[in-house]
Design goal:
Blueprint lengths: L1 E4 L6 H14 L31 H13 L3 H4 L7 E8 L2 E9 L4 H7 L2 E5 L8 H15 L4 E7 L3 H9 L3 E6 L2 E7 L1
Antiparallel strand pairs: 1-2, 2-3, 3-4, 5-7, 6-7
Length: 185
């Protein structure tokens, strides 16, 4: 059973295993709230959390806390962000991915990021996890009062495009290498 849950240290062990899978494939964990290890500090706003630093239970606990705080406008607005529900995608008791439900769109999200971002660890792909996580994310977006959600993916990411289309996504256009889909809620 796939669930979207708030970030918790209960998933630390399986989160670390997933982060290692992403690192081995050279992929970024979209929707996670992490800054890539090779991104310069000056390019990151807010507290910097990097995958390589998450082995510490204390750092991971701080990361989970700060991701839960991102729903609060007074926390994110000074950083130029919008309120954002950062969630773990779990299967049973295992972390299998990340999801981000942005409560509104700013200019950048309208062009590139959309209302919902997600990523599934490589070993858990092709089993319908992303499709179900996006479906649940759309339900959460509806609960936030969003009646039309923008979901994007890279133009060459056919698996993600299929996930979006299975959830009712209608392609509006491709802008700067990103497919932009709208889903009526």
């Amino acid at each position: 059973m796939i669930r979207l849950v708030v970030p918790s240290v209960d998933y630390h062990r399986s989160w670390l295993a997933a982060a290692e899978e992403f690192a081995q494939t050279g992929e970024y964990m979209h929707g996670s709230g992490l800054a890539p290890d090779d991104m310069a500090d000056e390019d990151v706003m807010g507290t910097i959390f990097r995958p390589s630093k998450m082995t510490s239970t204390e750092v991971f606990a701080q990361f989970c806390h700060e991701m839960r705080e991102r729903t609060k406008r007074d926390v994110v607005e000074p950083l130029g962000w919008v309120p954002d529900s950062k969630l773990f995608i779990v299967e049973g008791n295992e972390f299998v991915g990340s999801a981000s439900i942005r409560h509104e769109l700013n200019d950048w999200l309208l062009r590139e990021g959309g209302h919902i971002g997600y990523s599934v660890r490589p070993s858990a792909r092709r089993r319908g996890i992303a499709t179900e996580a996006l479906r649940q994310g759309l339900d959460l977006a509806r609960g936030l009062g969003i009646d039309r959600a923008l979901v994007t993916c890279k133009d060459d990411n056919l698996a993600s495009a299929g996930t979006i289309e299975k959830n009712g996504g209608v392609l509006e256009n491709v802008l700067d290498g990103n497919r932009r889909y709208w889903i009526d809620l």
